[in-house]
Amino acid sequence: MGGLAHKKSEALFAEALERIPGGVNSPVRAFRAVGGKPFFVDRARGCRVWDVDGNEYIDYIGTWGPAIHGHAHPRIIEAIRTAADRGTSFGIPNPLEVKMASLIREAVSSVEKVRMCNSGTEACMAAIRLARGYTERNKIIKFEGCYHGHVDSLLVNAGSGALTFGHPDSAGVPAAFTQHTVVVRFNDIEAVKAAFLANSNDIAAVILEPVPGNAGLYLPKPGFLTFLREITREEGAILIFDEVMTGFRLARGGAQERFRVQPDLSCFGKIIGGGLPVGAFGGRREIMDCLAPLGPVYQAGTLSGNPLAMAAGIAALEMLGPETYNTLEKLGAQLEEGMREAARAAGVPVQFLRCGSMFCCYFTDLPVHDLADAMKSDRDRFARYFHGMLDGGISLAPSQFEAGFLCTAHTPADIERTVEAAARALRELN
Question: Could you confirm whether 147 is annotated as catalytic?
């Protein structure tokens, strides 16, 4: 792994390979996309992580988004400690569930009722089931490059056009499970129109990340989200925003506040758990009331609304205010300006995309608006850049196709150091 010593990490990875498939509990962590071996974290605080060999990194993974206040924030740690003293799980209603629901509802104007679950995957799975139950329709429209967790019917990314049913992206998912999933290109209005035309009165929902963050990061074109709102309303379909990543990050009210488009249902996770496993979905009252025990759509979870995740999430949400987003925007603008200048000076073609505190650097000279554009990025060049940054003490996601995250614990000095490391890494690419 370059210039830093990682003997302890390498030993741990060798041991992990014998006990854990691929040595990791989530595939991207294995460094397969960038080569080399992963490092193992010993501790984290603020915007920094330290590995088991004592190496220090400025972190832009942020536990893949939840750490908007940085790692191990004292207020969140204290909230967890206080909750744990009362019990780690009850399986019985507790007041913290009600408080969390109130905070989400207050922040997200499209949400009238909300139900907790245990992951973003669960939230998306339940929202899809609910949309189908409410509309009494079967088919779902999703977009290339939008990830909605490892739900069988949503593990579909490819297709030759708006009218093509996707094929499963994972072994173990029968083709029959995806036959009701229609995959179209992100930002392609005409493809969405064609999909509705070909499946008249059978589209239950359109689900998307309003800002896709699992194919790197690219933005909705002006008017695209508004168009989706209009066509789903006209066609009697449910519009679902997967805000697991963007919720409470792009604004207190998420991407729907930032872009001023209200969906029927929203999925949440990450930040609302304060770093603990969590998920939630919510939306219009008449749709949510189709859930059991009020309605016929079943959804349940033993640890849903558990007090530790609720306490951590409440603390995280209560610290979010206008100053949070002002700080993140300033840091993001500094990083964007610095990265663009570093790439220009190095003579390396890049597309640096940013939305608030989320960002991605594609190694291409072509604009990126969708998955097909993103796939044109030079992944070998990214891998070399990644390791150059790691050797410079900067921890980025070990994949071209993952977003980076800023937190309020980052400082202008941290950004300056990051840009300096990027300048060195970019120069070495030529």
Answer: yes
